[in-house]
Amino acid sequence: VTAPGREVVVTGLGAISPLGIGLAAQWRSLVEGRSGIRSISKFDASGFPVTLGAEVPGFRPEDFIEEGFERAAMDLPTQLAVAAARMAIEDAGLGPGAWDPARAGIYLGTTGFNFSDWEAVSEVALRAAAGAPAALDLRSFGRELAKSADALRARLSSPVASTLAIARRFGIRGPFGLVATACAAGGQAIGAAKRAIERDEADLVIAGGAEESVNPVKLLRFCLLGALSRRNAEPARASRPFDGQRDGFVLADGAAVLVLEARAHAERRGARVYGRVAGYGASSDAYRVTDVPPDGAGAVLAMRAALADAGQSPDAVDYVNAHGTSTRVNDVVETRAIKQVFGERAYALPVSSTKSLTGHLITAAGAIEAVIVCLALRHQVIPPTVNHEVPDPECDLDYVPNHARPARLETVLSNSFGFGGQNVALVLTAA
Amino acid sequence: MATRVAVTGLGLVTPIGVGTAEFWDRLVAGTSGIRRIGGFDASTFVPAIGGEIPAEIYDPDRWLPDRKARKLTGRMVRLALGAAMLAVRDASLDLAALPGERTGVFMGANQDDMEFLKLCRLFVESADPADPGRLDLEGFARNGQRACQPLEYLRSIPNMAAAHIAIACQARGPNCTFHSLGTAGLQAVGEATLAVGAGEADVMLAGGTDSWVQPETLRKAASLGTLSRRDDPRACRPFGADRDGIVVGEGAGVLVLERLDRAAARGARVYGEVLGYGTAVDASDFPEAAQPAAGPLLAMERALARARLGPAALDYVHAHGEGSPAGDRAEATAIGRLLGSRRRTVPVGALKSLTGHLGAASGAVELIATLLAMERGLVPPGRVGAIDPACDLDVAPVARAHRVDVALCHAMVTGGLSAAVVLGRAPEGAAA
After folding, report:
1. How far is CA A281 from the centre of its chain?
2. Are A243 and A237 in contact (CB under 8 A)?
3. B413/chain A closest Cα distance in angstroms
4. Which residues of A touch B45 (CB under 8 A)?
5. Over its length of 432 residues, how does chain B's per-residue pLDDT go in tens digits?
6. DSSP string, B37-49
7. Is A360 one of the catalytic residues?
8. Residue A274 and residue A281: Cα distance in Å, rounded?
9. A379 is catalytic
10. B169 interfaces chain A, CB cutoff of 8 Å
């Protein structure tokens, strides 16, 4: 049982997503059902079977990161992470010196290599091989690389680059965690941060994730997996979780950061509280790395663990922010899992997938969805699942189709599942 | 930690041995596992040495009989599966009787880099015919779909080791992968201990896996200038006067952690208890800065505080000791401050002198080495040559009898991340 002062509350939010930059932009798009998904514009994607994606419009790193913090050497995910962290810290009303660095921690979902520097790497490779692929060996590559080492520094220091950049920029010397559980990582980083506060290792934690998935290397890999929607002609209609005509998810860029605080710490400084991270649960499907069990048993375990951690019964839940990727398999299995956890009540329980609007932020998905849930709690409105047009008999719950819905929200469950059978659930409650 | 957490099984796959018996024998003898790399053509690297696990001591396909599964798994997963299954066997865990929902897996792991050069070749194949210095993305898309495996993404992501172990053990409880390079394995064990302590699981398999003996890792390390230039099985010289950099290595280590009362009830052999765990990020202090030891010291103090012990309780410290000029100096300063007047009398372990840097596996493997030292009353050697006067610690040149009741293991990423775990001797009366 957690001591009341060690309860974990959310006091600041930062979000940069395909829906826009900042909280107001996120919320406006969510309630108006305005999609952030378009044709890919960052590079020429015309050769790929998928040409749509969810990019962040108009992100200027110089708006958030001073020169001298190696802004230019940072890759896009690191820039997004630092910018979202700054937003969240300012949103929490925390100025310089507002916390004890030794009692501040950082937990981020991470993706491994970002391949954000694909252009620089490809240029080095092309120069090294001088037109003949067989001539490319480590020696020639290394020689070319030595000439352009500075441009690749950020890549070389990844995956810990964003953790170190945020820690240095904002003054954090407490505990840390870099969670690499694929699409569950953002949610799991928040869960791990919750534990660090409960255990009295930190009073304040920066938690979340950043992702750049719209780049040629990742697009290629996800195209090969066959997991992406190919509705290239209608990008805004491509992500359609739980809809009968769904055909895959949409890669997205973005970052989301939450400032989590021990309740006593937040109260002492009179902070505004969005809500509480009341429960966290994680599990593994232990089934197949390529597939999920048809009954969603692993997802059920995670949801039950999160509810138990929150000391809540399923009956307390007012809304489920689903993982809802818009793949054929995920949405059916998640629906079954929700039915197992909530029984008959599942049919009366609003379940929505905001990925219908944001696309899939992969390792940052759980983080942006936690931010969205906090905004839903604040506004007492459930964001919709857009593009819900054709019923799927196997997806027969109330998915809050197409229109935002005012509702009394006290307790919300947010799911994040990842390749490899990772399952994470968070319970967020009103203050 | 209200719930006491015991270590009841150890499994490892390292350059100096597979399984605890072989590993311990070579460790005590001071036999280096660092050799000329044979797994791929590394002749372009000078020197081309590493702690590579030779095929004659470990068959990476051993635990993956399914050919389809092999296609899907990189070397890290294959090393990790061996370590996990050895740990399960060592703990005499009956997998069929294990409560799957109460059994979890936490691993430190890295991204699988094997395909990097292949990706670069793909870039080259996809050069713009009109301008061979530029990439033609349309060609890249076309060539990539032809040349790459459909499931390549799944092969590359760090959480695959924990996923495969969970499948092999039907461990459906908490599952997490940490990706903080050199601190990841230690973190996985520390966090897993806390998960058992918090009642989230009864049994955890926790550890790390990594392979830095790969072209991409060597390339990166070479371009960062962090590699030792010596062509010598004794190239890695932790805290040594003439140390000149790290040596890449590969391996995996997995520990079985369980509630002490559960271990006692089933009469399990208890290697020791995990008493405390702490981490610190301290990016304000780069190695060249004035206070580079602050982060490591913070992590060690936090782990001790969590164990409710002071530095005076420590009989042994296992250092990260990677052999780098700046990193070792920072760490030695921190350990020296922690131990105070006892800095010359508390033995310090430095396994990397024999294995090279095992990346995300190193913390887990070094915890195992420390538990074996505790059980056997013998601290293994770690010193190569003379100790740097600026790193004035007691690193033994040969194995030495020494009773260890409380030990601390430290791991770091030079330049900002530190983690520490405190281990205690198995309580009297526990099966041994």
Report:
1. 17
2. no
3. 9
4. 138
5. 479 999 999 999 999 999 999 999 999 999 999 999 988 777 766 678 999 999 889 988 888 877 777 877 889 999 999 999 999 999 999 999 999 999 999 999 998 766 677 788 888 889 888 888 889 999 999 999 998 888 888 888 999 999 999 999 999 999 999 998 899 999 999 999 999 999 999 999 999 999 999 877 787 777 777 899 999 999 999 999 999 999 999 999 999 999 999 999 999 999 999 999 999 998 764 444 456 678 999 999 999 999 999 999 999 999 999 999 999 999 999 999 999 999 999 999 999 999 999 999 999 999 999 999 999 999 999 999 999 999 999 999 999 999 999 999 999 998 789 999 999 999 876 654
6. --SS--TTSSS-E
7. yes
8. 21
9. no
10. yes
| Among the partner residues A45, A112, A146, nearest to B111 by beta-carbon distance | A112
Whether the complex's predicted ipTM is more than 0.90 is answered with yes
Among candidates A130, A180, A225 on the partner chain, residue whose Cβ is nearest the Cβ of B153: A225
Contact between B270 and B432 (Cβ < 8 Å): yes
DSSP secondary structure of A195-211: HHHHTTS-SEEEEEEEE
Residue matched to tokens 């994040």? A416
Question: Three-state DSSP class for B171?
Answer: coil
Nearest to A211 by CA among A335, A80, A357: A80
A403: phi then psi, degrees, rounded to nearest 5: -135, 135
**H helix and E strand count, chain A:** 13, 15
| Chain B residues lying within 8 Å of A149, measured CB to CB | 223
Q: DSSP character for B430?
A: S
- Dihedral of the CA atoms A291, A297, A301, A302 (nearest 10)? 30
Nearest to B223 among A142, A167, A418 (CB): A142
Query: Shortest CA distance to A141 belongs to which of B124, B74, B125?
Result: B124
Tell me, yes or no, if the pTM score tops 0.80: yes
Angle formed by the axes of helices B362-376 and B20-29, nearest 10°: 80
Q: How far apart are CA A407 and CA A382, in angstroms?
A: 7
Residue B422 pairs in a beta bridge with B276, B408
**Of the candidates A195, A206, A199, the residue with the CA atom closest to the CA atom of residue A173:** A206
